[in-house]
Amino acid sequence: MKSLLARKPVADIIAAADTPGRRVPKVLGPVSIAAMGVGAIIGAGIFVLTGTVAALNAGPAIVLSFVLAAIACAFVGLCYAELSTFVPVAGSTYTYTYATLGELAAWVIGWDLILEYAMGGAAVAVGWSGYFNGLLGMLGVALPPQWVAATGQAVVLSDGTTTTAVANLPAAAIVLLITALLVGGTRESARLNNIMVAVKLTVVVAFIGLGVFYVNGANWRPFIPDNTGEFGSFGVSGILRGASIVFFAYIGFDAVSNCAQEARRPQRDMPIGILGSLGVSTVLYILVAGVLTGLVPYAELNVPDPVAKGVRVMGHEWFSLFIALGALIGLTTVILVLLYGQSRIFATMANDGLLPPVVGRLHPRLRTPWISQISIGLVVATVAAVAPIDVLDELVGVGTLFAFILVCVAVIYLRAVDPHAPRPFRVPKVPWVPLLGILSCLGLMSGLAPTTWLRLVIWLAIGLVVYFGYSRFHSRLFTKQ
After folding, report:
1. pLDDT at 380
2. Please, are residues 53 and 235 in contact by the beta-carbon 8 Å criterion?
3. β-strands 154-156, 162-164: how paired?
4. pLDDT of residue 160
5. What is the count of structural domains for the chain?
6. Which CATH number do you get for residue 30?
7. Which residues touch 363 (CB under 8 Å, ≥6 apart)?
8. Is the residue at 317 inside a domain?
């Protein structure tokens, strides 16, 4: 039991990350890091989930769902900012947990983060496929329906007959393309991401600026539709369920913490990247949700491309094409950051002995964890090809919230056991702000469906089997004892 609770000293974590075999180039500045955050956050939340949640859960009150999710993220974001400067290495929540709660907890959270990063990447790829198919339709090109939907889903063919889908090939293809880009190098990926984020923000701001003139106030009434008799379907419970689901849209800011090891000045750059990207994204989410539900009656927004549908209501066909292109670029940046984060977490776990050593191996020329990146890309591409987005986004939500709770716990713990250690950024009012983060996350988790909780338990049980079957006996901490 003592070895299961063994903690990895912060000094050892930082020293190990700076050894010649694991050292990575420090090429990211505050603008690139903030762009990474905005690139991950502004995507599925605006371009996909806004319509689904408005139609099925919260109605026009989806803006309140975004506010609730943002409040929880603000508390947690402060905790991430402190830990990413205190432990400026890759690995995100996994690394922070290893330094505070011990190896077993670190493994559990590392395994849980697969739900956040890998499954999140798959979910966004499915949304990307929806916009890609819509864009092709605008251009007069139609892909076979059975190859653009999740395996087993019912689809309607051009002759009106119904069949079942085989796989979502565009979703798998975009994952593989981004995987190849990430293997090619961090600096190159960051530069392309910066360009795509600039284009995406231009599209989002243009939608808000133009759409506000076409808003029909009648579409906002009732602002909170009556509950249908089912928890989470309109009413106050619908706002809570909606917040639990759109929380998926905010996961990008914690992916930024994986940039710490490649940041030029992590003590300054990481807080700017995390908190800045969160603030910008929250404002844009609320504005887009308000404009979209004012353009289109909420009941009609359960479509793969809700923002494009809102543009079509304005009657500007040229702008529909512009939005579709912007959505594709926006969703691409989200997939890029999530795949980037997952590969860094896996590489860190491999370096600790909890995964096979080959997973952490850096490419001799490119200096990227190429085996980890390729393996993750293949798995995520497969999941994106076969799984529907509604199952994926709830899995991502519960996995993310669980990870966020442990980050808040880590801040409280480190302040108690090592209160005098230098902290370039400090969370104010500890332990109250981290406690508010914990309570906010628990509140959002309560809005998720029971089946989602069951999937989380099953996933964590599988992870424990892997840990006690392999990782426990190959852990570097264990073999040193």
Report:
1. 92
2. no
3. antiparallel
4. 75
5. 1
6. 1.20.1740.10
7. 183, 369, 370
8. yes
Structure tokens at 413: 């713990």
The owner of tokens 């809700």 is 306
Residue 116 has phi, psi (to 5 degrees) of -75, -50
- Identify whether 4 is part of a domain: no
Q: What is the pLDDT of residue 26?
A: 65
- The amino acid sitting at 476 is R
Question: 131 lies in which domain range?
Answer: 10-480
What CA–CA distances, in Å, run from 21 to 67, 184, 364? 44, 18, 10
| pLDDT score recorded for residue 307 | 84
Are the CB atoms for 150 and 130 separated by under 8 Å? no
pLDDT value for 305: 75
> What's the sign of the alpha-carbon dihedral 332, 334, 339, 341?
positive
Which neighbouring-strand residues pair with 163? Answer: 155
Rounded CA gap, 335 and 43, in Å?
Answer: 9
Return the H-helix or E-strand segment holding 97. Answer: helix 92-100
Cβ contacts of 204 within 8 Å, gap of 6 or more: 42, 46, 284, 288, 326, 330
Summarised one tens digit per residue, pLDDT across range 188-231 is 666 676 777 788 788 888 899 999 999 999 999 999 999 888 88
User: Which contiguous run of DSSP H or E holds residue 164?
Assistant: strand 162-164
Q: Find the helix or strand (DSSP H, E) in which 163 lies.
A: strand 162-164
- Burial string for 52-65 (b: 16+ CB within 10 Å, else e) reads bbbbbbbbbbbbbb
Phi-psi region of 355 (alpha: psi -120 to 50; beta: other; left: phi over 0): beta
**pLDDT given for residue 189 in this prediction:** 63
* 12/20 Cα distance (integer angstroms): 15
Q: Is residue 243 domain-resident?
A: yes
How far is the C-alpha of 134 from the C-alpha of 143, rounded, in Å? 10
Residue 73 in contact with residue 323, Cβ under 8 Å?
no
**Residues 152, 167: Cα–Cα separation, whole Å:** 8
The Cα 446–Cα 452 span in angstroms is: 11
Q: What is the spatial distance between Cα 350 and Cα 372, in angstroms, rounded to a whole number?
A: 9
pLDDT of residue 65: 92
**In a domain? residue 5:** no
The segments of the chain whose pLDDT lies below 70 read: 1-5, 10, 13-28, 39-40, 44-45, 88-92, 185-191, 193, 251-255, 257-262, 366, 390, 393, 479-481
